[in-house]
Amino acid sequence: MSVEAPPPARFEGTIVLVRHARALRVVTIATGVILSPLYIGCPFVWAAIVWALQRLELSVRQAPRGLPGAAKQALEVDADRLCLDGPGGLRLLRRDAVENGWIEPSPSGFAATIRFSSGAMLFVEQDTFARAAAVIEAVGLGPRRRVLRVRLGTQAAAAGNGPIMHLLAPWLVTMGCLSLASMFSVAVLSLSGWSLLGLILMCIPLGLGYRFAQYVTPARCDIGSDGIATSHLGERRFVPLASVTQVNRSRSGVVLSLRDGKDVLLPTASPNGSGVGLRDAIVWRIEAEREQRARDEATDRYEALARANRPLKQWRADLVDRASQGASTYRQTDFDTEELVRVIENGGAPLDRRLGAAFLLGVRPVEAAVRTRVALAADAVANQHARVALSSALDRDPAEPAIEAALAADEVAQKAQKS
Q1: Share of the chain above pLDDT 70, in %
Q2: pLDDT tens digits, residue range 219-247?
Q3: Is the CB of residue 319 less than 8 Å from the CB of residue 356?
Q4: Percent of the chain with pLDDT over 90
Q5: Is the dihedral of CA 64, 70, 73, 77 positive or negative?
Q6: Are 264 and 248 in contact (CB under 8 A)?
Q7: Contact indicator for 6, 77 with CB cutoff of 8 Å
Q8: Considering only CA atoms, which of 225, 10, 222 is closest in space to residue 135?
Q9: Burial of residue 195 (number of CB atoms within 10 Å: 0-12, 13-18, 19+)
Q10: Across the chain, how many H-helices and E-strands are there?
Q11: Which of 16, 33, 129, 412 has its CA 20 to 30 A from that of 358?
Q12: 142 or 32, greater pLDDT
């Protein structure tokens, strides 16, 4: 079954293309490093310079607010490119270079924010949220299309200590390094009876330094069709959408209320701003995924795809065998290609049913467009184990260890939700 490319979509409004957003980040970091000797004598001057650069970077990354280049333009999106038509002439952007996108509030409505792999950012301001969401969908960044990856705010900023910690962080890091060096010297040079004490003393600043780094550095957040995954300095956490009962806004960020009565905070505030745009973008995306999940609840018809406590090889062999015998013998597994693809794309379906649908597709001759849809469905999964498993399940020789790991992790998550 062939999948036709969607027709070109056209949008008009205030549009800003910022090509140097990533360069500003590099300049900010380089300036802080080059001027680091100034911190010893004049820490407040150093902090003021870095703070000003970060404010400039933040203003560029926000939705259009009188930025240079803001003008009424038209954006046309087709299968291969984005075409900007405005006072500056015709500008073409590659669609395959689109990396991420979200919706945030703007002075005149809502802005579809699109980030490219080159670091450029495109702001498309629309008067309604629905039209901004249509822009995101047109470039292939909507719910169930691709994971939303954002950098969260810091815990220090969420607690109201962002500016203070921003000033003290370099000094504390310097003192911590000196403490580590001195403790290591004690451990090495002391007698054997005292070396253990030296190592213990060295671990104390190590642990404190790690906790401080978590406090003042931002985490990464992935929002997909299955849930919300966060990673921060080696710590990973996954919150399934099924366990989220409510999504609330707060001054510190986004608060997820879970079925077990606990709350999870996704901080969006930074030392230089409240992070309202990021907060609203996260809330809107999670709510969109939850609404889509509610619409896509799996039916009993797809029980035939479930694992049903069978070993992986037997489960896959049974599905392949039933498919080869045809609908006359096993009507319950008579799924056409489009139906199987929709099961895989359904983030609300249990993982084993999505994998079962991929196993059945793997033994059929499918077109490249179908494989692309499956790949996009896998990319829209926030859980790393499940994403790897879905990406591999369509192969003739799937990666069984990855699939087993994904199913085991999913089983643990399901038990945690029920307890």
Answers
A1: 72
A2: 899 998 889 999 988 888 999 888 898 99
A3: yes
A4: 8
A5: negative
A6: no
A7: no
A8: 10
A9: middle
A10: 14, 14
A11: 412
A12: 142
**Token pair listed for 179:** 């403490």
- Gap between the terminal Cα atoms of the chain: 43
Mean pLDDT over 401-409 rounds to 87
d(CA 386, CA 381): 7
**CATH class, range 9-141:** mainly beta
In the DSSP assignment, the letter for residue 273 is B
Gap between the Cα atoms of 253 and 26, Å rounded = 26
Decide: helix, strand or coil at residue 237: strand
pLDDT, tens only, 129-140: 889 989 998 888
Strand spans (E) along 144-225: 148-151, 220-223
Q: Give me 113's structure tokens.
A: 């924010």
Query: Do the Cβ atoms of 75 and 10 come closer than 8 Å?
Result: yes
Distance separating alpha carbons of residues 139 and 59, to the nearest angstrom: 24
Residue with tokens 């680091």: 36
